[in-house]
Amino acid sequence: MLSLFRPAPPIDRLPAEQIDSEYKKLRLQVFLGIFIGYAAYYLIRKNFSLAMPYLTAEGFTKAELGFALSAISISYGISKFVMAVFSDRSNPRMFLPAGLILSALISLLMGVVPFFTSSVTIMFVMLFLNGWFQGMGWPPSGRVLVHWFSVSERGSKTALWNVAHNVGGGLMAPLAVAGAAIFAGLSGNSASGYEGVFILPAVVAIVLAFLTYFLIRDTPQSVGLPPIEEYRNDYPTKTKKTFETELSTKEILFKYVLNNKWVWAIAIANIFVYFVRYGVLDWAPTYLSEEKGFDMNKSSVAYFLYEWAGIPGTLLCGWLSDKLFKGRRGPAGFVFMLGVLIAVLVYWFNPAGNSVVDMICLIAIGFLIYGPVMLIGLQALDFVPKKAAGTAAGLTGLFGYLGGTVTANALMGVIVDAAGWDAGFMLLTASCVAAALVFALTWNVRGQEVVKNH
User: Fold this and answer.
1) Which sequence ranges are marked TM in the entry (predicted)?
2) Are both 187 and 332 inside the same structural domain?
3) 3-state DSSP call for residue 446?
4) What is the CATH classification number for the domain harbouring 107?
5) Cβ of 166: how many Cβ atoms within 10 Å?
6) Secondary structure percentages of the chain, helix, strand, coil, to 5
7) In angstroms, what is the C-alpha Rg of the chain?
8) What are the angstrom distances between the C-alpha of 371 and each of 138, 177, 194, 335, 382?
9) Cβ atoms of residues 39 and 171 within 8 Å
10) Residue 328's beta-bridge partner residues?
């Protein structure tokens, strides 16, 4: 491990009278750091999609650009697991901004140097690298969350932090469009300037990377504060164990993650959750156009509402898992997936012509599906020691992206082509049921109670 990324060592504890005020200040500060930092990652994750119309005009086919675009999902899914192993043994104050700057540099190169958008192969390599560095965002955020927020409040705090990807994703498009306009103006050619789609968001991301460095701290002990469990008197186990020992890579992988049945259970659940998430989202415009008679404007509105409905849904799901279910995530996930199942069935069987019902169904699915997406990441943090949190979350992400997202894109297309939309919806329905059942298996599992058995 590079010395630059080593975890910050504990220092002497502050005087008792300073602890409460310092804890409150730093909890807000580090939370803002990971929120801003993770939102900034989304400023430079999907830019290529906005550049694709310009690249099509330059002679690239949609198939070629689609192939290049797939590099991000492939590398991000793998990186979220691999880089998490390193992140769990690193200082998030260095790790998160480093990944953000590296990702931004890839984006800058694609905008500034024409060579890096000159062929499909080169674009695939650059986007693969971008996806790889993007995998350095979630794991350090998870490390911060488990060290600064205790089990009984972690659901609502993780849900609030999770909104960062909606914020960053929402801001990316106007930033990218502004960048294209600026560079088109500089070149004096309104038809070009697409380079700005990469450049302006990357510059903003680099600025925000430095801001996150100044905001984030590693562990409370590294700034003279007691562990969060002691500060809030909220211990994850009856023995009041806090799992503060730094772990080796071998211990993280083979003692706490790869032989943990609960981590594997939620990793499998993530395949089904992601299949529903993207099976509905990515195919909504096509399905609504072909089967429900929507035009492109209506479809785009439905797509937008699906995404943004996820914000209040995620916050509610996190709150319920903390307050109503006392830190147990399984019941909230089960209830939300049942809601998704009902909404998917209505969406499927609603006759063409009732566009309002279709819109309501998509809003409901969006509202409900992002809660389970968040909960699986949160359960991954709960089911292992704090020093292995990123790796566990990375494993679930690997399954979600490679098993769920790729399947939702590829398998849904093949099934619908071969057997029609009804067959596709049968898969979505079965996935809702499967995800709900796995959440039910974790019904009585709370916090880190399972860690003591390893």
Assistant:
1) 26-44, 65-86, 98-129, 163-186, 198-216, 262-281, 301-320, 332-350, 356-378, 390-411, 423-445
2) no
3) strand
4) 1.20.1250.20
5) 17
6) 80, 0, 20
7) 22
8) 17, 30, 35, 10, 16
9) yes
10) 446
